[in-house]
Amino acid sequence: MNGEPQITTRQIAIAEAILRNCRYAPGSVLDVGCGNGAIADYLRQRLPCVRRVEGVEILPRRDAFIPVRRFDGTHLPYQDGEFELILLSDVLHHIPTVRGQLRLLQECARASSKAVIVKDHLCDSKLALLLLAGMDWIGNHKDGVPLPFTYHTTTNWHRLARLAGLKSVRSQTRHFNIYAKPLAYLAEGGVITGPLHVLHVFEKA
To answer: What is the pLDDT of residue 191?
Structure first.
């Protein structure tokens, strides 16, 4: 209905990927850069163990599914280990510098007691970079979303996690069901470019 928050098919696909890879029974979930909070709310509905769900955003939305606090994009306003599970869904590649990405990932590691789940882009070829940049521009430029195009290779994802004191215990690079055919063959099947999406489950190293 008009005026009520809506969950998109993309958000459902990402939430389902998180559920497939989550081996925990978290009592608390924090969604960093949550937007309307639909992904975290979807997890809350599917996981009866979740008792607390919150989000943080630089510019909180009034139509969010979950309680959202404002933050500065770097420091999380929470205690060490306050949340069992922390989500970062398509957030890091909008941060213009690797140093900034690392700072936020370190904050997530600090505030998490079990795991940090990151869904983002994967860029293992020059053609992948061109396709990701084009798709990112089409999907976000009209809303004024920062587009620094700071994507990572498989190797760099593991390096970034290691510098943040994390290690990847599970990952997914295909079959997210985010796009309809035929775009799915390019963006998810990696037929020409290699996989363009990745989901990492990080735990403290």
So the answer is: 60
Dig out the tokens for 169 from the structure: 């215990």
Distance, in Å, from the CA atom of 155 to the CA atom of 153, rounded to the nearest integer, reads 5
Separation CA 191–CA 106 (nearest Å):
34
As a whole number of angstroms, the distance between CA 205 and CA 189 comes to 31
> For residue 126, what is the enclosing H or E element?
helix 126-140
> What whole-number distance in Å separates Cα of residue 144 and Cα of residue 142?
6
The stretch 107-112 carries a mean pLDDT of 98
Q: What is the pLDDT of residue 30?
A: 98
Residues 48 and 65: their CA atoms lie apart, in Å, by 17
Angle between helices 9-21 and 38-46 (to 10 degrees): 50
Q: What is the pLDDT of residue 178?
A: 85
Describe the strand order of the beta sheet including 28-32 as a list of residue ranges. 68-70, 52-57, 28-32, 83-89, 112-121, 197-204, 166-172
